[in-house]
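so im writing up the methods section and need the GIY-YIG domain-containing protein record in one place, dumping it here so i stop losing it
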Amino acid sequence: MDAKKILSFRHWDDCKIHLASWNGDKNPLDVFLSDRVEWQGWNEYRGKKNVFNRTYIFSLIEFYHEPNAWLFGGFFRVVNRHEDWYEIELCSDCEELIGRLKLSFERPGRARVLKDSYLSGMSLLEILREPYNGEPFCGYEKIDHEFSSVELIMRENRPDWKAALENVKGVYLITDKHTGKRYVGSAYGASGIWSRWSCYIGTGHGWNDEMTKLIQAKGIDYARSNFKFTLLEYRPMKTDDHVLIEREGFWKDVLLTRGQFGLNRN
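--- predicted struct ---
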């Protein structure tokens, strides 16, 4: 079943398709979950070309957890065209499917905006019972998440993630994607990894010396744009703290995170 048959929309012939994907700074899926006003702003961006030269925008969000999957982000009407942005309003059409409808579509190249002729290539993946509200806990071995994703999980206090992370100790890696530098740390407090990572989310630096200098100079948005969390090891809460500290030292040596290659001072 293609998009036209799923969505009761009267203006397909006066519509452009917006494929919102990673812009080098943020994932639109994370933006959609955290701030609907900011998400609407993604559809207002104009750039040098008048790409939304029709009245309506059919907006899809790259569902980056699955290949070729797109989440319906709404229909928007272009109210006014300014030199560098579009003034738009959210349409009521199919509003009940926003955040619920997932379509399968293999994008041709990296085009951000497509004509309505591509609608026939979009097929139904699923319709969620409730609007998508974030990634379910993926398992300890698969934690390799952007700062902004972890921030969203913790701000929403996701029960599946919280239950998993506050009941284990562990050794983790924080990577600065901009510089390539890395930081290895360990979590062994009463609330495990959840508590330790919450400190990073709140401060951007977790009070680590080199990271504190970096975030004080550049601001927490630098962490949101560039830091990534990876869990290297996890252990039961009954594990002696000295074991975690020893494993932390091992990973610092392996990954050369002391000195010029990393953000660990010792």
